[in-house]
Amino acid sequence: MEYIRKLFSVEGKVAVLTGGGGVLAGEMAKGFLNAGAKVILLDINEEGIGRKVESLKNISTNVSGIKCNVLDQKNLEDVDREILKKHGRIDVLINAAGGNMPGATIGLNQNIFDLEYEQFKRVTDLNLNGTVLPTLVFGRAMAGQKSGSIINISSMAVARAITRVVGYSAAKAAIDNFTRWMAVELASKFGSGIRVNAIAPGFLLTEQNRTLLTEKDGSLTQRGKTILNLTPFKRFGLPEELIGTVLFLASEASSFVTGTVIPIDGGFSAFSGV
Ligand code: NAD
Q: Which ligand 1 atom sits nearest the alpha carbon of residue 100?
């Protein structure tokens, strides 16, 4: 029993979560704090992060927030120094800053030729480079320690095309490849103590996609209905349903797991639709 408890433990680990003011990072932070980890939330939105840190203090005081733009290398390096000065190490990095943007979504009465290229670039920049840059900056401490777990956030938009979200999908597809690439690079050059994996959340009802999935009165949009028809569980996921997989990937229980993308999707990616 004690052996299994230790295997899955993240107690005392230093976990850095980008997009820390957001919904999913907030849920994952709850999991880490309940499990005795030290959590540092990074977000560009200082107010959002302040609110999140205050609410998480109910669980544990081992939580802090730092304003940080994941697209600004100098800012990331300053934050890295601050974290290392205080905690001396980084054990877990979750790259949760990201998401789709209204301007990068093809409207209901639009087609791909209406796409604003500037918005396409913004959404690919945030989702792809906003994962690459923190990995390069915070991964350095892990390389020095020869241990660490990096967890990226992929999407159901990777394997098959999901209409309307072209830039977001392209960026998330690149994250899958980057996850495998970094897993191989870090293992080959720094040993098997550093692992890089991704989770691919299915359709969770959060602010990011609420207007795509539900009408103002809470009933399902046509898109929401189509998704549930293709989801064997016949429901949307809950943000807290990511916690178990993320803690597994952060702990020694996954010590031989690297370069994977784990769907958390109620069966969506397994189902042919027939
Ligand atoms: P969210 O919008 O609640 O949180 C994202 C956070 O990122 C926000 O707090 C925002 O301020 C922050 N952010 C934006 N730009 C930033 C920058 N340049 N630097 C630092 N922080 C920045 O989104 P979420 O639902 O929590 O999603 C988190 C991740 O999970 C995203 O990558 C998203 O694409 C992915 N995802 C979400 C779902 C879902 O259903 N919600 C499904 C699949 C994947």
A: 34
Domain range for 226: 206-236
Question: Is the same domain home to 114 and 223?
Answer: no
DSSP the chain: -HHHHHHT--TT-EEEEETTTSHHHHHHHHHHHHTT-EEEEEES-HHHHHHHHHHHTTT-S-EEEEE--TT-HHHHHHHHHHHHHHHS---EEEE------GGGSPPTT--GGG--HHHHHHHHIIIIIHHHHHHHHHHHHHHHHT-EEEEEE--TTTTS--TT-HHHHHHHHHHHHHHHHHHHHHHHHH-TTEEEEEEEE--B-STTTHHHHB-TTSPBPHHHHHHHHT-TT-S-B-GGGGHHHHHHHHSGGGTT--S-EEEESTTGGG----
Q: Do both 127 and 92 map to the same domain?
A: yes
Q: Is the CB of 153 under 6 A from ligand 1?
A: yes
Is 271 a domain residue?
Answer: no
98 CA distance to ligand 1 middle (Å): 4
| One domain, residues 141 and 159 | yes
Interval between CA 45 and ligand 1 midpoint (Å): 11
Percent of the chain with pLDDT over 90: 93
Give the Å distance between the CA of 2 and the centre of ligand 1: 36
- Tell me the per-residue pLDDT of 189-198, one tens digit each, with 9 for 90 and over: 999 999 999 9
Task: Indicate if ligand 1 lies below 6 Å from the C-beta of 139.
Answer: no
| Closest CA to ligand 1's atom 34 | 99
State whether 168 and 99 are in the same domain: yes
- What is the pTM for the complete model shown? 0.97
